[in-house]
Write a structure and sequence with these properties.
Rossmann fold; alpha/beta; 3 domains; 7-stranded mixed beta sheet; 31 strands; GMP Synthetase, Chain A, domain 3; Luciferase, domain 3; binds ligand 6R9; about 30% helix
Length: about 650
Amino acid sequence: MANGSRKETTHGRDWETPPSSFVSGANVTAGDRDALRETGWPSCWKTAAELLDWHRSFDAVLDDDGSTRWFPGGRLNASHNCIDRYVANGRGDETALIWEGKLGETRTYTYHQLRDEVNAFAAALRNLGVGEDDVVTLYMPMVPELPIAMLACARIGAPHSVVFAGFSANALATRLAGADSEYLVTCDGYYRRGTALHLKSMADNACLSVEQDVEQIVVNRLGDDGEIGDARSYADLVADHDGVEIDPVERDSDDSLFLIYTSGTTGEPTLVEHTTGGYLSHVAWTSHAVFDLKPEDTHWCSADVGWITGHSYAVYGPLALGATTILYEGTPDHPEKNRLWEVIERNEVDVFYTAPTSIRAFMKWGSEYPEQHDLSSLRLLGTVGEPIDETAWRWYREHVGGGECPIVDTWWQTETGGVVLSTLPGADRMRPGAVGRELPGIGATVVNEVGEEVPPRESGRLVLTRPWPGMARSLCEDAGWGVRRTSRADGQWQYDTGDNAVRDEDGYLHLLGRADDVLNVSGRRLSTAEIESAIVGVDGVAEAAVVGGTDTMKGSKVHAFVSPESNVAGDEVLRTRVQSAVESAIGSIAAPDSVTFTPSLPKTRSGKVVRRYLKAIANGEDLGDTSALRNPEVVGELESLLNE
Ligand code: 6R9
């Protein structure tokens, strides 16, 4: 292959190597990785904390009293670390944030401009009475005022709680009440596919249904002079406090930086809390080591800031390293299906980070869209959120990464704060379809029902065996050196991730999906992810989701919902190809008993397939509340299809 990339195979599986030009310039080399492993846990995490500016340096890496407090004694401020220190060291005129608006407009903030706006809004919040540790809820779409408000909160030590703008008034009310928050920053509305949606009326309804009085601040996004009643105008507040400087409040390392609800992927949405020192060290170091971010880089994490991925890798990680981050307001296919590639080309993006669900959509739309653009600025690609199958991995590398870019598949959760499993692109080989290994300083293993480690090639539950800096507070507070959902009797620290995984002979982990999604067919446990991976390998298939149907004989029937690529018919020929692909990849036991073709699959608002609705449809059960879905109409269509 060109530019020094090589192909190797062990145990029948391919390795892919990053080009030598990438390796020679990487932030973390194989030598650095080995040195970190040598230093061992928890001391190696000192390297992460050293990426930050501390007002008072920490006394130890990890508290030894069993409380899992990271960097005790240390004091710092996240807004100082993400902004001021770069203005102070002469980089104030470099770009911090590029906003790509939905109607084609763009806005750019240098570090200097970001500091001024964050200062003004921090001063305004303080004037309204927001004090240290008061929770400020941010119910906003992808506008620059969202990261600005996050950083303004961080500046005055007020934890923010961002609520995804696609949530309903009810969901917002639950989150306002759950966080006991008396301040809400929102927008009059925003555009979705060219249509204006009114956010303010949802915010009003939510405020009416909570017990506390809520002070509202409204950003004018629609550009009209809509009534905002008793609420304050964001623009007026910032203008009134123009030029005011607020000293960043020194926070204890363990003080709260923000609250966030889990996305619903890992069970019922629950509120988790992330700390200032541990979280920021973790996301800064992983941005440096996993995303190989340099200060001169432009980084684009396409996730909405309403989710943890946007918090960690669109806001805190890239800004903590002094890089440029892109905030994209639109949808990938509006006005055209080449919109993302146009944004990458125009801004010369170095690192692009997205989810397999998006990559599958790009594949479905066809490679002609990325091919219309010069994507040669890209150095590294990343993926997160779901297992990425080999077909999607190769398509992503070929059509977006020019056949050369290394890809990091990053496994983590809202609860973990930052990436915990991945490859280090400057140090490790890649294996399409495998996430990689635990990062240095992370303990991970695969265990059976009684908590014993299983040998390679046997699947089991993925558990993390040691605390890490980005871990949510509640994970350690549940039970001292908190064991959450553990099955192990000897009291050893263990965090059960709820995901199933298998380690291959080379030590690489393959994620198999949520444990709740496992099928039991004739006494054999089958992973939905494995079956789906075989199905999407079939030419003409864009996406697939597999669920269990009840079968008195076999335990579970395998029911596949398959979304063909556009222009491909969901017919008998495709059905047979799907079935034989699973048969040859896994065995006839896993071959789908039924295949239902559908133009799309039901997804959460964060873009993940929700198998529980498909399961209800396959089994003719009541669907219950489908309001958490982005596309509830799909389940209705599927129901009528199956009842025909
Ligand atoms: C960051 C984020 C967490 C759940 C997690 C797992 C799934 C995330 C993955 C992955 C396979 C990956 N997940 N990354 N599965 N490979 N690279 O997505 O957080 O919304 O809390 O979801 O997502 O099942 O347990 P969150």
